[in-house]
Amino acid sequence: MNTIKITKIEEAAKPKGKAFLLPGKFSPYTIGHHEVARQTAAHAAASGYTHFYHGLGGAAKQTESDPFTHAQKTKVIRAAHRELAKAHPNVKFSTTKKEQLGPFHQLTHIAKQGHKHITVGLAAGHKLKGEIEGWV
Questions:
Q1: pLDDT, tens digit, for every residue of 53-67?
Q2: Is the Cβ–Cβ distance between 122 and 104 less than 8 Å?
Q3: How many whole angstroms separate alpha carbon 90 and alpha carbon 31?
Q4: Which backbone phi and psi does 130 adopt, to 5 degrees?
Q5: What integer best gives the mean pLDDT of the chain?
C-alpha cells in the first residue's frame, strides 16, 4: 500500500530568507527616497536580510499626483539598486510587479516567493502603518 504525505504548500516551500519591503509611490524617485533606501538597505544587510524590495505603489493610471508609469519608476529604481548592490553584495534587490499597487498585494507576492520573515519599512506617520499592523 502506498502512502501519500500531504503537506501544506507553505510548509513545503523552501524559505528564501528574510525580506525587507520599502513601499511607496516613488513618483518621482527623489534623493530623499534614495537616502531612505540606502539607510534601510544598510540596516537590512547588517541584520541578515537576503532580499530588499521597493514596493512600487501608486495609481493604476498616471495621475497628476503620480505622473510616472511603473516602467519609468522601475528603470530609475533599478539603477539605484545597482549602486546599493555594490555596497551590499549579499542582498538581492528587486521591485514589485505592476499589478501589485499596494503594500498588501506586495506582501502577498513576497510571501509567495517563499519569504517567511518580512519587514515593512514605513515612515513614522505613514497612514498605512496601522492598517498593515492590523492585517499582519
A1: 999 887 667 788 788
A2: no
A3: 24
A4: -65, -35
A5: 81
> SS3 sequence, the chain?
CCCCCCCCHHHHCCCCCEEEEEEECCCCCCHHHHHHHHHHHHHHHHCCCCEEEEEECCCCCCCCCCCCCHHHHHHHHHHHHHHHHHHCCCCEEEECCCCCCCHHHHHHHHHHCCCCEEEECCCCCCCCHHHHHHHC
Task: Measure the CA–CA gap between 40 and 57, rounded to whole angstroms.
Answer: 18
Instruction: Answer yes or no: are the C-beta atoms of 40 and 121 closer than 8 Å.
Output: yes
pLDDT tens-digit readout, 75-96: 999 999 999 999 999 999 999 9
Predicted confidence at residue 61, as pLDDT, reads 74
Burial class (CB in 10 A: 0-12, 13-18, 19+), 94: middle
Q: Domains in the chain, ordered, with CATH?
A: 15-135 (3.40.50.620)
- Residues above pLDDT 90, as percent of the chain: 38
Partners of 56 in beta bridges? 24
